[in-house]
Amino acid sequence: MITSLRLSLALRTAVGALTLGALVACGAQTPAPATAQDGGTTVETVLGPVTVPDEVESVVVVEGRRDLDIALALGLPLVGYPTVADSADPALPSPLAEPLAAATEQGARPLFTRTEINVEAIAAAAPSLIISRADDVEPVLAELQAIAPVLAIGEQTTATWQEDLLLVGRATGREERAQQLVDEHEQRVRDFRATHADALATTAVAPVSIGTDGSAVRPERLLSTVLREVGATPSRAFAAAIAASPEGVEHGPEQLLVEYADADALVALVNTAQEWEALQADPLWQQLPAVQQGRVVRADNATHEGGPLTAAHVLDLLDQLYATA
User: Fold this and answer.
1) How many CA atoms does the CB half-sphere of 193 hold within 13 Å?
2) CATH assignment of 196-323, given 3.40.50.11810, 3.40.50.2300, 3.40.50.1980, 3.20.20.70?
3) What's the pLDDT tens digit per position in 135-178?
């Protein structure tokens, strides 16, 4: 019996970079229609057709970011999800904290870690539907399909969260709610553009992950995607990362001042309180113009990936950032 498999979290080769604002201009791709079947609805996924029962009584999500966000946003009856193995700072609560707490009150429980699928624990939860990023479940697809239908969604470089949200909505009879969430996000992006039009045009910005090994800009992360949706002016490092998508760019600790000196504003992605405290004491960090002018907001890896709830959280952060510009 397979009890667990450790899955790789390495970045997969994917599509090229999106242009600034492309997601808003074009919208999510029109997905293939669902097909009604006796006792269920069949949808096409990257892992083939899946028939989801008309009555979804319980759901397990496997990857714990986009799939969890979508399940919570659609109000699906969540019973199991993975724990978060990454370091976290209580000062930066997850954008999913409140809805996940509500789901926990209704019986949802962590079943395994994000990097390890425990098939026996999923079987014991007896879900009527399993939702996950395709790359995570593909190695154990047969084992999971023996438990429940597996609805595979994409990831940052293979599908937008809007596309996956609509897919899950169609499959579970919540398409109207899914479309409402997409429409609300698009309207908020339009409002953001209007509210911050001058700052967006004149403020060079960079979303930069900072740790002990240096810094990086990843253009495929949700935070970066939302910045591009609202039409942010990229700093030199952000523009270079977009051109190098999906890999982005990395810099050593000594390059911090050089690479981000032209940024008028920064979103600093720092995961722990200890790392954030150390960064404040870094003389290179203190010399950055954005830091000296107080044009910095802090985020963490909770903004790397997700769905409508995380996207709304990111827009809240960006409202704070552009209010200082």
Assistant:
1) 18
2) 3.40.50.1980
3) 999 999 999 999 999 999 998 888 999 999 999 999 999 999 99
